Amino acid sequence: MIDFHCHLDLLKDPVAAIEKLKSSRTYVLSVTTTPRAFPKTAKLAKDADRVRTALGLHPQLVGERWRELSLFETLLPETRYIGEIGLDGGKEFSDSFEKQKEVFQSILQICSRRPDVIFSIHSRYAATSVLDHLEKNLNHGTPVLHWFTGTTKELERAIELGCWFSVGEPMLQSKKGLEHIRRMPKGRILTETDAPFTGSEIVSSLGRTERSLAKVWDVSQEFVSEQLRKNLADLAKTGTSV
Ligand code: MN
């Protein structure tokens, strides 16, 4: 199974969680919310060969943490995975929205030297702004929109721009989420949990997510697993010259 967006470092017992993920042979993108959290989060995964650690600066934290952008730049050579980054247009974060845009643009700019980067992107109440930024920076990297909650129009634009999507239980439990998933190209979908924000039982959540996807696509769970594995392999090839 695949969890393409979770916060291992925010779980109560990350070490135990990694052991479980290792024994279930789960592929994981372990995202971080500040550059300062990257080194120790990456260390957690050093013996887990299916776990990749992403370098991030969460939009909800940009107001306090934007100064860590220089550390972001220093750490960039250590990974090809970038996240959690993006924009949050929620009222609670309106004070930092201008700064969020500045930081998001800087991150995309800094990453332009790396055509193979893969982004895990937050776009809550800000899908159009996120897509505007991606459109201006499309010649490098592959964006994966995590837990997409924009409008149908925004989704169609995202698909046209070549975005990928990571989907989890909250999307599969909402009517709009289900409609979105039906529109997304099957070849550009990965599963996610966003743990611990949606619960901490990663493996069982991924199982339920695969079974729900099987219903939506009207196929077997085996077909879903196979499709997701193929998608992950395709994603890994993006932006590389092989
Ligand atoms: Mn998250």
Question: How is this structure best described in words?
Answer:
The chain is α/β, with parallel strands linked by helices. 44% of the residues lie in helices and 14% in strands. It has helices at 14-23, 38-44, 62-65, 69-75, 97-110, 127-136, 152-160, 169-172, 175-183, 202-217, 221-237; strands at residues 2-6, 27-30, 51-53, 81-86, 118-122, 142-146, 164-167, 189-191. The strands form two sheets. Strands 4-5-6-7-8 form a five-stranded parallel sheet, with helices on both faces. A three-stranded parallel sheet has the order 1-2-3. Strand 6 (142-146), helix 7 and strand 7 (164-167) form a beta-alpha-beta unit. Bound molecules: manganese (II) ion.
Output the keywords.
single chain, 242 residues, alpha/beta, 5-stranded parallel β-sheet, 3-stranded parallel β-sheet, 14% strand, binds manganese (II) ion
